[in-house]
Design brief:
Elements: H1 26-46, H2 52-65, H3 78-87, E1 111-114, H4 121-125, H5 128-134, E2 139-142, H6 164-182, E3 187-192, H7 195-205, E4 219-225, H8 237-246, H9 251-259, H10 261-265, H11 271-277, E5 287-292, E6 314-319, H12 338-348
Parallel strand pairs: 1-2, 1-3, 3-4, 4-5, 5-6
């Protein structure tokens, strides 16, 4: 039975007070009717299937389920995945968004995948999603940041053009729906490119983490893949634009119309990133794994992806070429790298991967396989 369907309740059935047709004192009759109405109202308010919270939760689950339609094939070629995602902008990766999936004792936390700029749930995770599902995880992926306020955002399947902070609010609703549907206490997050700082924004400002009591965190692990955590210079282009903007010529602001607000939020020194990183990189109670590539030509320099652990958090920063120089993954193909996928699996389930060495294979720049 789905949570948006009415569930049986042990509460006594609501009944109306019997009509008093007999002759009696008018005041006594009115008092009895008033008392019965109050009793009926009290029972109705106590009915757990009618509370505003339950109705809102059911609506959130229904909205999340409708976020994607159908599934696409497993795809390890990044360019093919992006093409398929643009032609089929609502599909989820194979094995992802099974809303009947039930977490197990071995895999207690569902995984929520957060795609990158100009991509969607399928194009970012066509390879990672099926790999996680094959390991027995319940895996979910959302489309977010869809807006027609820029020229890029008009193109079907080109998501993540809205402000990153707005996308974090969408993620908050989606995670709540996953928790409500699965009955889990926490989720794990995997953020690709923009998805990483967006997930961190959710943790810090949208209820994903509770620094006062980390036991209440809605998230246990965050994996960042090619994340623009400290902004990108775009090989110097964004640095020049930031310099000009900071000195009165709003070059970056002009870019929002063609490219969208989301990309500008990720430019080095943006107000969004300045605010996000002002209190440190991490949240107490969260374990972070950061995967980056020396050949990343979008999130530059690649070291800006790395995070520094604050109180109560752990961080593992990984350069994908360490120990495997033949992996030439760039920004696009990193999410399809077998080595990167193995590091994701390891981060989210270290016990089952104990003793397993991440694969090392040649992986092409841009395309991947």
């Amino acid at each position: 039975m789905k949570p948006w369907q009415a569930e049986p309740t042990d509460a006594p059935p609501r009944t109306r007070a019997p009509r008093r047709a007999r002759l009696g004192a008018a005041l006594m009759g009115a008092a009895a009717v008033a008392a019965s109405m109050l009793t009926s109202t009290s029972v109705a308010a106590a009915d757990p299937t009618d509370t505003p919270q339950v109705v809102e939760r059911a609506a959130g689950v229904a909205e999340a389920i409708a976020n994607t339609t159908g599934v696409g094939p497993l795809e390890t070629n990044a360019v093919s995945a992006i093409t398929h995602g643009m032609l089929n902008p609502l599909v989820a990766p194979e094995g992802v968004n099974d809303w009947d999936c039930v977490p197990t004792a071995e895999r207690p936390r569902p995984i929520v995948l957060v795609h990158g700029t100009y991509q969607n749930a399928y194009s970012s995770f066509s390879a990672i999603g099926p790999a996680l599902q094959a390991e027995g995880h319940c895996v979910f992926a959302l489309n977010y940041g869809i807006t027609s306020h820029s020229l890029a955002g008009i193109i079907p399947g080109v998501n993540g053009t809205a402000a990153v902070a707005d996308g974090a609010k969408e993620l908050a609703r989606y995670v709540d729906a996953v928790l409500a549907q699965t009955g889990a206490d926490q989720v794990d997050l995997v953020g690709y490119s923009q998805g990483a700082p967006l997930a961190r924004q959710y943790l810090r400002f949208e209820g994903g983490a509770d620094p006062a009591d980390p036991a209440n965190n809605k998230v246990k692990n965050l994996v960042s893949i090619a994340g623009t955590n400290h902004g990108t210079t775009l090989n110097g282009i964004a640095t020049i634009g930031r310099f000009m903007t900071d000195h009165g010529l709003n070059i970056l602001g002009l870019y929002e119309l063609p490219f969208g607000t989301g990309p500008m939020d990720q430019a080095v020194g943006s107000p969004f990133l300045t605010n996000l990183n002002a209190g440190g990189d991490t949240e107490p109670g969260i374990d972070y794994t950061v995967i980056a590539s020396s050949y990343d030509q979008v999130s530059t320099p690649y070291q800006a992806s790395f995070l520094e652990a604050g109180p109560g958090a752990t961080v593992r920063n990984i350069r994908i070429q360490d120990g495997c120089e033949q992996d030439w993954s760039d920004h696009l193909s990193l999410a399809t790298s077998p080595r990167a996928i193995d590091y994701v699996l390891e981060a989210l389930d270290p016990e089952s991967r104990d003793g397993v060495t991440p694969r090392c294979a040649a992986h092409a720049w841009i395309t991947g396989k």
